[in-house]
TrEMBL record:
InterPro entries: Cro/C1-type_HTH (IPR001387), Cupin_2 (IPR013096), Lambda_DNA-bd_dom_sf (IPR010982), RmlC-like_jellyroll (IPR014710), RmlC_Cupin_sf (IPR011051), TransReg_Diox_bact_type (IPR050807)
Protein name as catalogued: XRE family transcriptional regulator
Source organism per UniProt: Muribaculum intestinale
Pfam families referenced in this protein's UniProt entry, alphabetically: Cupin_2, HTH_31
HTH cro/C1-type domain residues: 11-65
Taxonomic lineage from the root: Bacteria, Pseudomonadati, Bacteroidota, Bacteroidia, Bacteroidales
Amino acid sequence: MNHIQEVAARLRGLRDALELTAEEMAHQCDVSPEVLAAYESGESDVPVSFLHRLASAYGVELTALLFGEEPTMNSYFVTRAGKGVKVERTAAYSYQDLAAGFQRRIMAPFLVTIEPTDSPLTLNVHSGQEFNYVLEGEIELSVGGHVTRMRPGDSIMFDSLRPHGLRAIGSTARIIAIIS
């Protein structure tokens, strides 16, 4: 089973455990029932922004939805170099969770590797704020209709209720993304 199908199975399991209809969960998470059905079937990749919104709405850990593991630490959690929980979200994105073992976190830090693509930007919207810091490569980032290019050392913080998306330009890029 690939990662998209594993996340889809966890979504279905959560909805079943909460005894919610697809319409109820879709409404609570601000997506159409058709979009939720595509996520739950594994036909469509589930954006981290949606998983974050779902985790917040139902009081579950983002880590449990993404990786199927419950965090265990509540005072501190160390992630050693190269040891964060990794997931290939799409062909263009790879996420490494830098605090997967920390319970009840209010932000989610990721090391994100982005492969260049000619595909149009996919825009996401979720509650909270997001911080991105470019480590390597160059990215094109759109926030609320404003597009900017960012290089190593550049950072941005924004209201993630604004439609946003990014892509690597020219070569592989790596960023630190912190989602709250």
